[in-house]
Amino acid sequence: MALDVVHKFLYVSNQNSDNLSAFSVNTNTGVLTPVPGSPFATDALPHEVVVDSAGKFLFVGNQNSGTISAFSINSANGALTPVPGSPFAGVGSPFGLAISPAGRFLYVNDINTNSVSGFSIDPITGGLAPVPGVASPTGQTPIGILADPNGKFLYVGDHMQDTISGYRIDPQSGALTRISGPSAASTGCPGCHMNTRPLRLVAHPMNKFAYVSNVAANTLSVFNLNNGTLSSVSAPVPTGQHPFGVALDPTGRFLYVANKVDNTISAFSVDLMTGMLAPLPGSPFSAGGTAPTGIVTISRQ
C-alpha cells in the first residue's frame, strides 16, 4: 500500500488481479471511497507501490512481467493515468521499490538477480530512464528497500542472507556505490548480520533511526542511522508472529507492525532521543482480518 504525501489517496496492489485499487481518504474518519476508474490495470503480479514526494506520480513493480508501471495522479480525485512509455522494462523480477525524497530517482530490487537498479524520473512526464552504470549487487533475495529521508543513502534487506546492504547515492546521476553488506569493500554496518530474515525497512522521520521487521525471529530490529552507517540500538524487540509491514506515525512517536500469522498489530511508543521501543498497553491488537501484511498510518485532520 502507498499513500500520497498529504494522505488524500491510498493505493493498493492486487497481485492476483494484476491491478491497483485506489481510494480517497476521509482524514477525519479514515473511511475509504473508491476513486473514479478504480481498479487500474498493471502488468502481471504487481508488488510494491510507491508515490513520489510531490504526489504527482505512482510506480509499481510487476514481478512476473519484469516491468514497472508508472502513472500520473489526478490531484483532484486520485485517478491514475499511465505515463507515456509505461510499463518500463529493465528489471528482471522487480519486487521492492523506493523513491529518493526529492523524487528524482526510483530504485528497484530484482530478487532473481540479487541486484538493485536505479532510474531517473522525468519531472514533467514521470517517464523512467536507467541511471548510468550496471545494476548494483545485493545480498541474496533482496526484498525490503529504503531511501533515507536525506536522499544520500539507500538500504536493502537481503532476506535470505540475513544482512543489510547499504549504498551511497550520487546526487547528480543517481548511481549507487555500495558501502556495506556481503562482499562490499567496507563493513559500514556493524551488527547488521541479522540471522532473522529481514523483510521490511522504514526510517524514522527525524532520519536518526531505522527499523527492520524480522519474519523468522518474530522481532523488530532498531538501528541508529549515521552518515550511511547502521548500528544496533538494542536487542531486537519482540513482535507478533511473522511480522511483515512496518509503519511510523507522521510524528515519529509511534510505530506499528502487521503480524501475518497471528493476525495482530504490534504497537510501540518511540523514544525520540534513543529510538528505542516500548510496547503500548494492550499490544498486540487484533488486526480484524486474516494474514495482514501491509500497514500505513494516516495523519488525522
Task: Looking at this protein, list some descriptive labels.
5-stranded antiparallel beta sheet, mainly beta, 301 residues, 29 strands
3D shape: globular
Number of strands: 29
Largest sheet: 5 strands, antiparallel
Q: What is the radius of gyration computed over CA atoms, rounded to a whole number of angstroms?
A: 18 Å
* Number of continuous helical runs: 0
**Gap between N and C termini, in Å?**
20 Å
- Fraction of residues in β-strands: over 45%
Low-confidence spans:
none
Mean pLDDT rating = 91
Helix content: under 10%
What class would the helix/strand composition place it in? mainly beta
The helix/strand series, from N terminus to C terminus, equals EEEEEEEEEEEEEEEEEEEEEEEEEEEEE
